[in-house]
Amino acid sequence: MKLRTRLALWILVGTVVVATAGPAAAAPGDYPTRDIQIIVPFAPGGGADASQRAFNKYAEPIVGRSLVIVNRPGAGGATGWAELARQRPDGYTLAIATPPFTIIPPLVKPRQTGYKLDQLDTICIYAVVPDVLLVREDSPWKTLKDFVDYAKANPKKVKAGNTGTLGADFMTTLLIEHATGIELTQIPFTGGAQQLQAALSGTIDAMVASTLFSVAQKGKMRTLAIASPRRDPMLPDVPTFQELGYNVISERYRALAAPKGLPAHIVDYWARVCKQVTDNPQFREEMTKLGQPVAYLGPQEARSAVNTMTEHIQTLVEKYNLAE
Amino acid sequence: MWSDILHAVVVNLYPSHLFVVLVGTVAGTIIGALPGLSAVSGVALLLPFTFAMDPAMGLIMLAAVYMSAEYGGSISAILINTPGTSGAACTTLDGTPLTRKGQAQEALYTSLLAGTVGGFFGAVVLLFFTPALAQASLLLGPAEYFWVAVAGLALVAGLSGRHTVKGLVGVSLGIAMTLVGQDAISGDMRFTFDNFYLVGGIPIVPALLGLFAVASILNLLENSQEAVAPLVMRKGALRFVIDKLKGMKLMLLWTSVLGTLIGIIPGAGASISAFVAYGEARRMSKHPEEFGKGSYEGVAAPECANNAVVGGALVPLLALGIPGSGSAAVMFGALTVHGIIPGPRLFTERADLIYTFMIGLFSTVVAMLLFGLATIRWSSLAVRAPRRVMVPGVLVLSVIGTYGLANSVFDVYVLVITGLLGYLLAKIDVPIVTIALGLVLGALVEQSFQQAVLVGQVDKGSALLYFLTRPVAVVLMLLALGILISGIVQLVRGRGPGMGADEDETGAAVTPRGPSLRTLNIALALALVALSAFIASEARHLSAMAAGLPWILAVAFALLGAVLLVVNLLPKTGALRARAFPFASVPWGHLVAVALAVVALAIGTEAIGFYECAFLFLFATTWILSGDVRGARRAALPLGFAAGFTVFVYVMFKVVLGIPTPPGLLV
After folding, report:
1. What does pTM read for this prediction?
2. B61 and which of B19, B20, B137, B663 could share a cystine (Cβ 3.0–4.6 Å)?
């Protein structure tokens, strides 16, 4: 039984070592002292995963520590953010947040969401992906005006696809209905692939998606308008909703987030890292290839952007009575 | 086109390309064989390595992982009744009986060669028919998907054997499990009990692994033999299998076609194709009675189909930019990293890449075949492993494999709970595979129905009209009805007048008093009635769209419970069931100890770390199961195995695959 005693001893020693090695409260200047976990609340291989991996690649040399990706998919990201909210705000567990996906669940299903919005701190935003409205190339609607006119004359007769009721595309479609005064019939699908198949096969007439689809499906799908404040360099011919007189802004952020209460010096640290990474032309090029235009919003701007988005979604939630 | 193909052949013979195919094949076969990690997790794990390669090469490596993982899944399915991937769930049905008869090697060769045929067929289709098939796939809408799913569910009759009522119980339970979570169509939360882990639903792969792997491992405790199964190393096993397969050419062709076509449908994949192929093979077979008892056709059909899926799933990806499966979706991601966004123009603008990749798919089939042939002799030795190390070993692999899927301890709990449930249900003759069928098809059948209703109301003013005015849907509907009717006919013919009886023909020992199968059946019936009441009470709070399927299930459970009650309470039919007690030979001490140890492993993983817990778990369970060992080896054997296996798992998962685990005390 000597072996077992020895084993017990080792476990004891190990516990003490680990317990003392973990920094109780990191003093400014000595962060980070170990590897950092980054929760990606989606499966590997998707858009958010790819952009966070690209970010990490350029951030690691600056940080000097490994940024370990932990994919934690489930419930459209909500499981991963709930996991983040449970962590200590010591800067060693961060996550990619992708508002509006991060914002919607606590607003519409507060009881079944494992976090509240104020439990997450947005550190910075490093990419902004606008939404677009697409129809098939052979559709009779050549412009947004054609589309709106038809839909106005035929309420609920136009079928728009989304990737899940109460999801991000669902909200954007509602926003378009709200701003243009039309009524569509939304047909939900369980993923981008199914939705695109339905669009190409004529099961649905229109869909909201990210700009990546516009670029990939050029020739098969026509982009009627883009929901950002300015035109996109990848789609120079596509007008914005605002140009056409409708106040529809709908973008998806790629942001770094932490559990609430991250010390100010760590927030500043990551803001600097974020700035350096987003200034790197190689990172910008890589992200452009992924269809994720790089932008930098520091802690203040990022927070206010998220707050504005939250208000917009809250308006929709109230108008369409979506909260449980 | 031909010059493109010729060029692609040359490129694929470069040593660098051959090398990545080999790496992908080895990795894919192993990842596929490990319980939990599936084809899609294998592809995702190797994704980062492709960033530094040229796009075609990276894609080919991922395709090699995808292809060989679908075969790898059958290795553990055949040897230890544990489907390594969800596509191999059906393979356990006949693979395990063959292993029990000492024919593990033959079963493995059957899976490998049938998989090669399917993979090759899929690759040919991909090379020559991609544009045409992709165009044809656009004829499909929700109504068509609905009937495909119904046709799949109609296979339940063929999968339940003699236990028809319990087969229906199984499939209903499987479908009921898919209800949990947020309904994508209505947005309603169903059966989540305000627990946010349940919002995403019951994860399918951990549940399948629990139902099959954990349940069958617990069953192994009853086995009084030292090893899992006998293994006869016959000379000429390969020859024997080739001759067998020559006799099923038509069936292999048909299951290849089915696998490829099902692969094209987004959202339907390897597991659905395997079920459909199994059902079809049974229907076509001259010996349908052998199915479930060790039929070579029963192994060949699902394995042929799940490899044919690979080519099929890539058709819409390459031609339309729609990934046909989870693995294809990761490949979509791999292409975007290189600045290539799959879409309709990919074919014309990047013909070089496309053809190199398509030809590369043939290399992956060849590599899978060669690697399989080289290793089957060795992998089949696994069944000779002593029970006392097999039980703890497989359980630890299942736990880490499940955890690695989504870095989630919740998934491990799902594994353990479904495992215990599966063990109990299998004991009272509920065919586990029918639960798997419901679990795999439940969401597709419900969502496509809801979508068809929504679309039908806009297009035709009524959902019924929509279903009846789409020619493809009508054809598929007739097909589904055909499968259902032929299942019922087979049942009636095979069973004769004793309808509804599911007695154990062997009679077993007479136990006039005390608990019996009759008692357990009555308990099951009451549980079903309670479940029905519970589902009905919850369904009242749901929107009309979200409440439809729950109501159907509530009625189904009530009816099934009533039938079971009647059959077991009637003096004549009930007495038959009073003779056997399925738990009579269970070693309760061992069972409870191992079950508790698994629960402790799941809980401890989060509290004190996975590897620490795995070591303690391995030591404890091996110790418990080595009661017959005396002397110094009594302690040395469990300790040595626990240490060695923990190191093996650590190297495999942490070092090679890089799967993070919850931070523990030591690692």
Report:
1. 0.88
2. B20
